[in-house]
Amino acid sequence: MKYLFVHQNFPGQYRHLVQHLVAQGHEVTFITQPNNNAMPGVTKLVYPRDTRQALHCHAYTVEIDRAIHAGAAVADVCRRLREEGYRPGLVVGHSGWGETLFIKDVFADTPLLANFEFFYQLQGGDVGFDPEYASSFHDPSKLRARNAVNLLAYDAADWGHAATAWQRSLYPATMHERIAVLHEGVDTTRICPNPRAAFTLPSGRVLTASDEVVTYVARNLEPYRGFHVFMRSLPAVLRRRPRAQVVIVGGDGVSYGAPAPPDASFRELLLKELQGELDLRRVHFTGQIAHHLYLDLLRISSAHVYLTYPFVLSWSFIEALASGCLVIGSATPSVLEVLRDGVNGIAVDFFDTEALAGHIVAALAAPRRYLRLREAARRTAVSQFDLHGLLLPRWMKLLQDLAGDGPSRDRNVTSMKRSKPNWSDARQEGSLFRGTQEKTNY
């Protein structure tokens, strides 16, 4: 069958799914913004980035304008495909940047499955969570306008998916029945403990599991992922554990939230703030590293710190569980959906640097005491997030049920969109869906 995917950063959340579809012999086309990523068997088509600087519109509508710009650009690519005779059996895409808004205006009879990743909240989410860093969406009217893209995308889609139950719970209750809770999955066969693993520091020193290694990983070192809190916990850790080595993985850019002041990074700001309090011979910044090196780092970690605002859960968190890490995570909703304090990890108040330092020190001082938590972390990853045995079959079930035998002129797609198909009934045994009040397996 012909599958059409859309995500501005190819392949995004769909890497595993696309690889699986290609391996099964399906034809996959992917619309994205220009990037250097490639995947065998996938036809990659690009639409131009929005390079406009100042927009002459109301401040509340800037995000909507950019979303419409992206959606229109994707629709132009779809029209060119249609003119060439291309007709997909199913379209799958990320809705957050507006890319899926107008696809149904081109492929009206083709089912559209959209990723609904985050519905912004004035309270209970990332906005206003950290008083040290003001959100650009602190104005409730601006936030309401920002969510218009979510609402338009929902109306344009036949079905949706969200990675976690907490993410789906952020959306209005009336939208839940058409959003599946389905994580992308982690290859727990490949991502697993290895007692023989080693990691080479930029200095050339080799660390193993016999060393005291504190790890922190984020795409970029920024407040949304608690980098400032982690850094402020380190003076106490380094003072109390003179053999501890701290390895910090991540770039100096910004993935989420406001950027650092001009000509600075959050790493530089925190190093300046903590000048004289850190033994920098034992704090190692690696920048962004290859995935296999990062996995080896997780395997030798004595204590892995994962902090986040109430926001989208990182893949690295699940990968740390799969690697058998002792995860010390923030007691924020997205983390607590998976992490159970004292059962498969340790939960700590996001802002409590003293408590965070205490847990790290305890983990370094008595590692054997935490073996059961490490084993439970691994079991959690395998039982809830395993890619091949659990989640890919569920993804394929969802795609097949949506696509049926492919698009048909006799098929009432609009009716399917507004009603709940049998396979999505949350009351059925073995359903793909679970209510947000229940523990999700996705």
Task: Please characterize this protein's 3D structure.
- By secondary structure, the protein is an alpha/beta fold.
- The chain has two domains: 2-185 and 387-421, Rossmann fold, CATH 3.40.50.2000; 198-385, Glycogen Phosphorylase B (Rossmann fold), CATH 3.40.50.2000.
- It contains 14 helices and 15 strands.
- The strands form three sheets. It has a seven-stranded parallel β-sheet with strand order 3-2-1-4-5-6-7, sandwiched between helices.
- Strand 8 and strand 9 (206-208) form a beta hairpin.
- Mean pLDDT is 91; it is low at 405-442.
List how many beta strands DSSP finds: 15
State the strand order across the main sheet: 3-2-1-4-5-6-7
Round the mean pLDDT to the nearest integer and report it.
Answer: 91
**What would you say the CATH architecture of the largest domain is?**
3-Layer(aba) Sandwich
SSE order in H/E notation?
EHEEHEEHHEHEEEEHEHEHEHEHEHHHH
Largest sheet: 7 strands, parallel
* CA-based shape: globular
CATH level 3 topology of the largest domain:
Rossmann fold
Counting helices, strands and paired strands, the structural category is alpha/beta
Q: What's the arrangement of secondary structure elements?
A:
Blueprint: E1 2-6, H1 15-23, E2 27-32, E3 42-46, H2 62-83, E4 90-94, E5 112-115, H3 140-146, H4 148-156, E6 159-162, H5 165-169, E7 179-181, E8 198-200, E9 206-208, E10 213-220, H6 227-240, E11 245-251, H7 266-273, E12 283-287, H8 291-300, E13 303-306, H9 315-322, E14 327-330, H10 333-336, E15 346-348, H11 353-365, H12 371-385, H13 387-403, H14 413-418
Parallel strand pairs: 1-2, 1-4, 2-3, 4-5, 5-6, 6-7, 10-11, 10-13, 11-12, 13-14, 14-15
Antiparallel strand pairs: 8-9
